Amino acid sequence: MWTNQARIQRDIEELAKFNATPGQGLTRFSLTAEDRAARGYLRQEMHNCGLRVYEDAAGNLVGRREGEQADAPVVMIGSHFDSVKGGGNFDGPAGVSAALETARVLHERDIKTRFPIEVVAMIEEEGARFSASLYGSRAMAGLIDTAQLQERKDAAGISMYEALRQFGFNPDEIAAARRMPGSVKAFLELHIEQGPILEAEGLEVGIVQEIVGIHDMKIKINGRQGHAGTIPMHLRADALNAAAKMIVRIAELAVEEGEGTVATVGWLSVKPGGFNIIPGEVEFSVDIRSGKRQHVDNVSRRIGEALQEISSSTGVVAELSSLMNVPPVRMAESIVDRQLSICERLGLKHRLMQSGAGHDAMVMAGVAEVGLVFVPSLDGRSHCPEEWTDYAQLQKGVEVYLHTVLELAEAES
Ligand SMILES: [Zn+2]
């Protein structure tokens, strides 16, 4: 193999050190001290293999390697380096390491490519700090403006606009992060599977054909706060009671839609939150996913209808706001075909698959042809401290990734 397992392992282990919650999983939120420290490591690694390092207006870190052809569109490779709260060491960094390792191999073998290559480390893919999932890639796709940066706030009430400014970026220039159509030839990402399929089937590499569509929304229920002892049941507008009915209905709607459609309420806030207070305000998240857009749209619409019904029967007022709505995305067939034949050539056990998780690649599909390689996750675990991929397994995925990049960037042999 051309890639080096020890270097990949070192990337993962070094990045894991930039962690706000040592001993309780990896927590690396965007635009924090841990983020800055991780950038320091990545910047040095990029520099060491001859990449020209810069940061775009959105805060993505990029290392560029020129190609032989002037003004040729770039082959972009990478993943994100932020994490969820208390997550694992591989979600994101595995793909950043794959891109770095690719650049190292090109550098040490002095391989020239026709197209330039950019290694990118994206920020705020998880959206754990600002609820702005896939932010780095959405900025590249021209989908983020300053108004959104001002709206999105972290738990402490700091807007993304302010956080970017304090970190040293200029949020007023966010539009400059946009990659114009035609300027990116392809975007290639490697990611851990985050599910149990590859491991269960004894496979080494997954070639993703399609990423599910995702609709994320926030629902706010305004009821009437009051004393838990003095107000009879029939005179209440209990925001949490109404929310509970809605949440039960949301899961039913996904099941009724079928074909693997899923809907999840993963976050809920109750105000004011006391044993003896009827809740006056409840907010919760809804995340709907399916490989078919129609299913996501149907469930979204029916959730809206259910909110109306339950609101009028319980005396609350519900507001629904859409945070993100991304259609299912197919990976470029030409890239999938290349990846399949590379797996054959390298003798790796592989399969085509769907991704139930969103990735930067799905957003980048609006900008360029995209490809996504999966490596197995031990026990299918992810977004938890136990998240693990054996380094030997990871290296096999990186090898497929490297050879795909060589073909896409048209390496001179
Ligand atoms: Zn990820």
Report on the structure:
The chain has 2 domains: 5-212 and 328-408, Zn peptidases (Aminopeptidase, 3-Layer(aba) Sandwich); 216-323, Alpha-Beta Plaits. The strands form 3 sheets. Strands 1, 2, 3, 4, 5, 6, 14, 15 and 16 form a 9-stranded mixed sheet that branches. β3, α3 (93-108) and β4 form a beta-alpha-beta unit. α3 packs across α12. The radius of gyration is 23 Å and the shape is globular. The protein contains 12 helices and 16 strands. It has helices at residues 5-15, 33-48, 93-108, 135-140, 146-151, 160-167, 197-200, 239-257, 293-314, 333-346, 360-364, 391-408; strands at residues 52-55, 61-65, 74-80, 117-122, 184-192, 205-211, 213-222, 226-227, 262-264, 268-271, 277-278, 281-290, 317-326, 329-330, 350-355, 369-375. It is 35% helix and 23% strand. 50% of the residues are buried. By secondary structure, it is α+β, with helices and mostly antiparallel strands. Zinc ion (ZN) is lined by residues 80, 91-92, 125, 191.
Number of domains: 2
- State the CATH topology of the largest domain: Aminopeptidase
Number of helices: 12
CATH class (first level) name of the largest domain: Alpha Beta
What CATH architecture of the largest domain would you give?
3-Layer(aba) Sandwich
What bound compounds does this protein have? zinc ion
Distance between the termini: 17 Å
Structural class: alpha+beta
Shape: globular
CATH superfamily of the largest domain: Zn peptidases
Ranges with pLDDT <50 over ≥5 residues? none
Mean pLDDT reading: 97
What is the helical fraction, as a range of percent? 25-40%
Largest sheet, strands/sense/barrel: 9 strands, mixed
Q: How large a portion of the residues is in β-strands, by DSSP E?
A: 15-25%
Find the count of extended strands (DSSP E, 2+ residues): 16
